[in-house]
Amino acid sequence: MQIVILKDAAAVAEYGAQIFIDQINRKSDSVLGLATGSTPVALYQELIKANQANKVSFKQVTSFNLDEYLGLDGDHAQSYRFFMNEQLFNHVDIDKNNTFVPPGDAQNPITACKMYENKISQSGGVDVQLLGIGRNGHIGFNEPSSSLASRTRVKTLTKETVEDNARFFAEGEFQPHLSITMGIGTILEAKKVVLLATGENKADAIRDMCEGAVSAVCPASALQFHQDAVVVIDEAAASKLVNAELYKHIESENQKLQQYLAELPN
Ligand SMILES: N[C@@H]1[C@@H](O)[C@H](O)[C@@H](COP(=O)(O)O)O[C@@H]1O
């Protein structure tokens, strides 16, 4: 795990966005795994800015979102499809036909999950997967106790997650307690994974993910098994890490190495 600790949320968004921009500029038909929640919004803003400044083009990009509420169709203002359109897709040159979000309105959600998995495989697999993290360590909607080998499936949300996400729903409005989410096994197959977290309320989850045992109690800890997982966090989210100084030291050494490699003659 590469753990990058930056001063604030704006720096986290910029750093994360640059990974995606570099990826697309290296491979124009990249397959991106995308995430919702409030944390990625600033990263999406950076991508929109870069697209509008012609620094990156999404014309040949394909995307797969992590998850969706079961029971909401894509026109529902709280659906993750709607969120992605509003926060990113409507503002960049991506072909929306190449953007996939699990169908929250599927008549048969079990079949829909299998089809979603097949679609990811047919696309060649995800090149870079963006992730946020829930306060309880969930990724996508893989709540504690999720199998670390799980595939895309229907998951029940915990009371904590329903409460955390209630802020987006109007009082009395139907709020789903079920979701369709990529599994942890699905996420681990992405060639690269970038997890962003900001703010003190994520500090426990970040500590458990990076320094705790690999366990279904903290689903994000499965990323310890990923060969190329980058955790980009601000000082507040890093505040409970025992080895924060070590990670900063490694990062500064890593940057010197990158600089050295960049200056090597071809
Ligand atoms: N399914 C999403 C997750 O993918 C996201 O990581 C989490 C944290 O969201 P936020 O970034 O708003 O804290 O919220 C939801 O539960």
UniProtKB/TrEMBL annotation:
GO MF, one annotated term: glucosamine-6-phosphate deaminase activity
EC code: 3.5.99.6
InterPro entries in the record: Glc/Gal-6P_isomerase, Glucosamine6P_isomerase, Glucosamine6P_isomerase_CS, NagB/RpiA_transferase-like
Regulation: Allosterically activated by N-acetylglucosamine 6-phosphate (GlcNAc6P).
Enzyme class at the top of the EC tree: hydrolase
Record's keyword terms, sorted: Allosteric enzyme, Carbohydrate metabolism, Hydrolase
Catalytic reaction list: alpha-D-glucosamine 6-phosphate + H2O = beta-D-fructose 6-phosphate + NH4(+)
Site (Part of the allosteric site): 146, 153, 155-156
GO CC entries: cytoplasm
Pathway: Amino-sugar metabolism; N-acetylneuraminate degradation; D-fructose 6-phosphate from N-acetylneuraminate: step 5/5
GO terms for biological process, alphabetical: carbohydrate metabolic process; glucosamine catabolic process; N-acetylglucosamine catabolic process; N-acetylneuraminate catabolic process
Highest taxon, organism lineage: Bacteria
Record: active site: 67 (proton acceptor), 136 (for ring-opening step), 138 (proton acceptor), 143 (for ring-opening step)
Domain Glucosamine/galactosamine-6-phosphate isomerase: 9-229
Stated family: Belongs to the glucosamine/galactosamine-6-phosphate isomerase family. NagB subfamily.
Stated role: Catalyzes the reversible isomerization-deamination of glucosamine 6-phosphate (GlcN6P) to form fructose 6-phosphate (Fru6P) and ammonium ion.
Assembly behavior: Homohexamer.
Protein name: Glucosamine-6-phosphate deaminase
Gene name tied to this protein: nagB
